Amino acid sequence: MNITLRVWRQKGRDDQGRLVNYKLTDVSPDMSFLEMLDVLNEKLTLENEEPVAFDHDCREGICGACGVVIDGEAHGPEVTTTCQLHMRSFKDGDTITVEPWRAKAFPVIKDLVVDRGAFDRIIQAGGYISAPTGTAPDAHANPIPKPDADRAFDAATCIGCGACVAACPNASGMLFTAAKVTHLGMLPQGQPERASRVVNMISQHDEEDFGGCTNIGECAAVCPKGIPLDTISQLNRDLLGSLAKGVG
Amino acid sequence: MANSTLTKKRSTAYGSTVALKSAMAVTGAILVLYLIAHMYGNLKVFSGQEAFDGYAHGLRELGYPLLPEQGFLWIARIVLLASILIHIYAVAVLWRRAARARNDRYQVKKRVQRTYASYTMRYGGVLIAFFVVFHILHLTVNAIAPGGKSDSPFERLVNGFQPEFWYVTLFYVAAVIAVGFHLRHGIWSAMATLGANKASRQGKINAVAVAVSLVVTIGFLLPPLAVTFGLVSK
Amino acid sequence: MSDTDYFVVGDPILDEKAPEGPINERWDKRRFSAKLVNPANRRKLSVIIVGTGLAGASAAATLGEAGYNVTSFCYQDSPRRAHSIAAQGGINAAKNYRNDGDSIYRLFYDTVKGGDFRSRESNVYRLAQASVEIIDQCVAQGVPFAREYGGLLDNRSFGGVQVSRTFYARGQTGQQLLIGAYQALERQIAAGTVQMNTRHEMLELVVVDGKARGIIARDMVTGEIQTHFADAVVLASGGYGNVFFLSTNAMGCNVTATWRAHRKGALFANPCYTQIHPTCIPVSGDYQSKLTLMSESLRNDGRIWVPKEHGDTRDPRQIPEDERDYYLERIYPSFGNLVPRDIASRAAKNVCDEGRGVGPGGLGVYLDFADAIQRMGRAAVEAKYGNLFDMYQRITGENPYELPMRIYPAVHYTMGGLWVDYDLQSTIPGLFVTGEANFSDHGANRLGASALMQGLADGYFVLPNTINDYLAEGPFEKVDESHPEAVAAKEQVTSRIDTFLSLQGSRTVDSFHKELGHIMWEYCGMERSEEGLTKAIELIRDLREEFWRDVKVLGTNDELNQALEKAGRVADFLELGELMCIDALHRRESCGGHFRAESQTEDGEALRHDDEFAYVAAWEFAGDGNKPVLRKENLEYEYVEMKQRSYK
Fold this sequence. Notes:
The structure holds three protein chains of three kinds.
Chain A lengths: L2 E7 L8 E7 L8 H14 L22 E2 L2 E2 L20 E5 L8 E3 L2 E2 L2 H8 L21 H11 L6 H5 L6 H12 L8 H14 L10 H5 L7 H15 L4
Helix pairs in contact in A: 2-6, 3-5, 5-6, 5-8, 6-8
Chain B lengths: L16 H27 L5 H13 L9 H31 L14 H4 L1 H20 L12 H8 L5 H28 L8 H27 L6
Chain C lengths: L7 E2 L16 H8 L5 H4 L3 E5 L3 H13 L2 E5 L17 E2 L11 H11 L6 H21 L24 E2 L5 H19 L2 E4 L2 E9 L2 E9 L5 E5 L2 E4 L20 H8 L4 E2 L4 E7 L22 E5 L16 E2 L1 H5 L9 H13 L11 E4 L1 H7 L1 H19 L8 E10 L2 E2 L12 E3 L17 H21 L12 H20 L3 E2 H15 L3 E2 L1 H21 E2 L9 H25 L8 E2 L13 H4 L1 E6 L8 E6 L14
Parallel strand pairs in C: 1-24, 2-3, 2-10, 3-6, 10-18, 19-21, 20-22
Antiparallel strand pairs in C: 4-5, 7-8, 8-9, 11-17, 11-23, 12-16, 13-14, 13-15, 15-16, 23-24
Helix pairs in contact in C: 3-6, 3-12, 4-5, 5-12, 10-11, 14-15, 14-16, 15-16
């Protein structure tokens, strides 16, 4: 396959940035999208042009490091992570535009690499259960109904890639935040901190300059792990409950 | 920069995006209920001038003598005005926040699954706000009176939507359609914001949103169009 | 054995911390004899932890909770992305919730036997003891393990053991455990007990007066070379499978932290012990950057075969039954397709070496579900393996419900690592090593669902109870950036970076890495021979010389420079690769996952030599250009009788 790439190049945080065109020949349909970028980088290096920086690590769809906007869609045309997208999803002769996640909360570091530290800080604000090592009761002390455990698991599969923010017209981090609120809120162990958790996490979410949620659903539609949109409703319910109780 | 330690001061959740959205949802719900009542009143036009004017007059008397004359009307007006102001204030804050959150735009952006209605919320809302002002000046206060002033609400209606004032009708139709779209996404969004969305209920909530917005749109379009096309006249 | 062309034999090494007495009392004894640190004094003591996988994040969280000042580092943009996250299968624990005869002793026994008698009995027993607490701890943190309808935890049998002791969270157990540890870590970050440095890579260890006192790290965003000091350093930096270029490791996994420590005096134990996993998706072309594992559970229902004829390129569906060779069922009639990982892997390599492999390059064998679909129905197969089939289809573009899958072995885990004593302390005082980065508990072969168990045992329960004993010696002398050792270490790092950037050669870093990977896979992979290994050593030396002459790294140090990061990692792999080959060369026996051509039974099975090789091979760095020194730690088995494995 022959492919024309329009790749966002940006030297650093303060650089303006621009799309640069590159032509690639002999692209195999069996390559992953990131392997195609590897090939581009090998070629650029030999031509004395700096390779394109992009985040990636496990390349099996679980670490959440990779993620670029491909032709206007977070992670590209398939609902999966960028590393699991393959060139067979494109046609010979295609022009493909590759951009970084764009959000004030995710400033560009270089080229396609952004800083997602805001997500870690949302977790720091309350995305945990306080259970210091050694304090745990026996694992069977607290049976958990399977439907609750399953829903907690579904929410817990979030990989923190940030596609939800990238796809949201408001650059909202609500699906990410809601996934954690739902995961921990469905479990009996998560109850003692439930009311304060949601308040602290939402406050941090807002502090980080993410936009608000307008229930449009683009986040859940691009989520490679299928985090359900209704987790956001669960978060809202929890937050309103907390505010009503005066936890705010 | 690469240090991700929590340093920022936390704000209070009473002013959070979720709280603001909830305020929009509650005020939106009040306005939707009002719209349905308003539409019911409008449809009285098909029962003739007497019924229509009687209904309008009845509103002024509602609650009397428990309340002073026009008391109910003023309570309703205050609640509605407060709702509108809160609704607009919240959207202004959230809109500005969203614009700041996506400070750099994408060069290429594709819609994945969002509804057309969800695109129309903000600018459609602005159109509706302008219309409401015009609408009050036209049919409530009667300060703007195409086709002539009248003490009869029925006559004000019929005068205003005569074929020669097609642009008034057109503005009205456009605004009502904008309301329809606004409700299509707004009802869904309000339910989700207030915590009613569950995967199993998603279809039902959307069906309700579509149904209410269709009923309201058609219900509001019928009276003026009936006048314009001569089905209702003095 | 005497000195050879490749190494010299030094003094044996002894684990002085190992307690004696009945095996079930040893951990208690050690915990009791270890010195404690008064909570008020903990605030005055600091610990650096490199890596935020299961072993690193759990240790950082736990030491932070205990009140130490912890500084944590990871090369990823978030501690949540460490490669523990990719573990699929599960985590073993001797809970005996199934009442099926499991016990701490049985888990201990299975692990020692599975490690082919090359691990320490004391360590493995402690691991089995800690396994029980791990599950409790993780559940308390909110890890959503699979549950049954009664609300209690589900277990499954894994990796051929006869008891159901594996706890799991669908196929994402590693992810869920890591997120649990990550959340505990983030909680401590918020509490101010842990300072987190993401996108930081450790490039050198600072040793002052013989003690580990800090690290040199590069801020990968700004390029700043920083010196960080502490009273103790913990390396939890994972394994080195990426020396093979293609492996199931993440792209960034590297040996630099442990290798730099090795060069500063920490012994590197059993570097040649690598685990090769039989069911990975095969390579599809030269551009391939990584290999993806598919759960071993597929072998429960799939049948593995290749065509009988060499070079048979027909569509597999057109090959009649009698022209297929179900070679595992043929050679190992009693275990069939369920033989252990090492045997399945080697058999696949053998048939491919014979020219009967399938798919691109002839490096693959069929894993066929046609019989299973006929027997159970497609719906049942889908229910059981649907997500794996989807993953296979996404990667290969082939539909495994219609065409047999193609699989090939791939490097998956490295049992070798820095030598540590019972306290997880290396031969450099104050340098502790946890998780896959140490050599400790798996011997020559790791059992399925044991890696997660070891990482968390080390981080939550072992290290926090043993590091006290060292820290109690404090307060330690203050050191700052002006200390000659710190200056020298920093200077070393800077000059190496300057060299990379100034070479301006003609080959990319990846091209060297790929070539090294080919050499390692060919000669130091599943089957090794003296001839091959000596050849590999020469090839690696030549390649290393060429690398330092001709590598091309563009850009500068003062920015995010991924080629520069890779160059440093590959430079260390080029040194490690040689040591791995030397280790493999000296170990003239077949053990665990490692088949030595010169050491086999009459019918071609692995032959261990317990009389000669029942020891840990701990290698000492003797300076560039000098032969490494072999220090042996003898292994004694008081509880488990040494036996040869047989699966026929």
